[in-house]
């Protein structure tokens, strides 16, 4: 992909948690000249970010200071990002761009269309994270070598391409977010927002539900002496690490990508039924093939 350089000089972050904070840290490290404003409900964290030299201006809310911004990042929980659009709209200067970092995209893209803001919005999703949350866990290298999904408004133009192209009228704005991704060391990948939500349902949202259900299965199956909990290590810890993630955040994610998650979950339940049947019938060759095919694909 072509390398782009950030030309925008002033940015605002609405929300400064793990992803927003890491993005701000990465930008400040690479481009100390960029002026960063931020607003969140926890004032003490904003004061710490300013003390750290990550942000230059603490915002008391959504107001006229945003008129100075070239790019505004929505980094609040996914259900709130769409709500902030109406508040931000009066404070957009000509040429200003709104983007978000939410892990579901359809809801905010549909809201963009409803509000007629396609000319000043490009969606984004840095595919990085941690079971830990909050600005205090943000790092300037969290997004390095992670995919940064870029979703143009109204999706991709499918004519003449299997993967789709950015419609020309949105290309310049999309390139501005691609430049942000490249600046923090991430790998930009342009996707249709509907395709994005199908992808993350399979590789992110369903795994979080599986991890949480597995942890609860062990909790409910354990003895009073909690022997399962005592000896759980290695593989169990690896596969269930993400079960420590924020319940509030993941409830919102699941409620904004429900249809795609349900489709994937039905397929997963069907595969578990096949495995159960193979075990009941002592079908060793099926079990061997299960492990062999998954190992080959995982190693690729």
Helix vs. strand class: alpha/beta
| Principal-axes shape call | globular
Average predicted local confidence, pLDDT: 93
| Multimeric status of the protein | single chain
- Please mark out the parts with pLDDT under 50 across 5 or more consecutive residues, or reply none: none
SS strand fraction: 5-15%
Secondary structure: number of strands:
8
- What is the helix fraction of residues, given as a range? 40-55%
Give the ordered list of helices and strands: EHEHEEHEHEEHEHHHHHH
Gyration radius over CA: 21 Å
Strand order in the largest sheet: 3-2-1-4-5-6-7-8
SS field, number of helical segments: 11
Note the gap between the termini.
22 Å
Question: What does it look like?
Answer:
There is one protein chain. This protein has helices spanning about 20-30, 45-50, 80-90, 105-115, 170-185, 195-220, 225-230, 235-240, 245-255, 260-280, 285-300; strands at about 10-15, 35-40, 55-60, 70-75, 95-100, 120-125, 145-150, 185-190. It has an eight-stranded mixed sheet with strand order 3-2-1-4-5-6-7-8, with helices on both faces. The chain has about 300 residues and is α/β, with parallel strands linked by helices.
């Amino acid at each position: 992909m072509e390398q782009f350089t950030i030309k925008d000089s002033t940015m605002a972050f609405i929300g400064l948690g793990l992803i927003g904070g890491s993005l701000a840290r990465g930008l400040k490290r690479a481009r100390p000249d960029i002026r960063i404003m931020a607003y969140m409900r926890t004032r003490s964290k904003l004061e710490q970010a300013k003390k750290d030299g990550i942000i230059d201006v603490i915002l008391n809310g959504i107001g006229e200071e945003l008129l100075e911004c070239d790019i505004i990042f929505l980094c609040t929980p996914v259900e709130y990002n769409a709500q902030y659009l109406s508040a931000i709209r009066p404070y957009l200067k000509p040429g200003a761009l709104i983007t978000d970092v939410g892990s579901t995209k359809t809801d905010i893209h549909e809201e963009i269309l409803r509000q007629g803001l396609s000319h000043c919005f490009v969606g984004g999703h840095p595919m990085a994270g941690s079971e830990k949350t909050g600005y205090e866990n943000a790092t300037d290298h969290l997004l390095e070598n992670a995919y940064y999904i870029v979703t143009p408004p109204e999706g991709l133009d499918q004519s003449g391409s299997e993967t789709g192209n950015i419609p020309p009228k949105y290309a310049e704005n999309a390139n501005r977010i691609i430049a942000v991704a490249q600046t923090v060391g991430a790998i930009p990948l342009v996707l249709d927002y509907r395709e994005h939500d199908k992808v993350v349902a399979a590789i992110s949202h369903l795994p979080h539900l599986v991890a949480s259900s597995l942890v609860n299965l062990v909790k409910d199956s354990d003895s009073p002496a909690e022997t399962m909990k005592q000896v759980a290590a290695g593989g169990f810890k690896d596969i269930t690490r993400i079960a420590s993630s924020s319940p509030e955040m993941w409830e919102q994610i699941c409620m904004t990508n429900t249809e795609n998650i349900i489709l994937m979950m039905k397929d997963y339940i069907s595969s578990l039924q096949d495995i159960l049947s193979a075990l009941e019938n002592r079908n060793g060759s099926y079990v061997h093939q299960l492990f062999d095919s998954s190992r080959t694909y995982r190693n690729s």
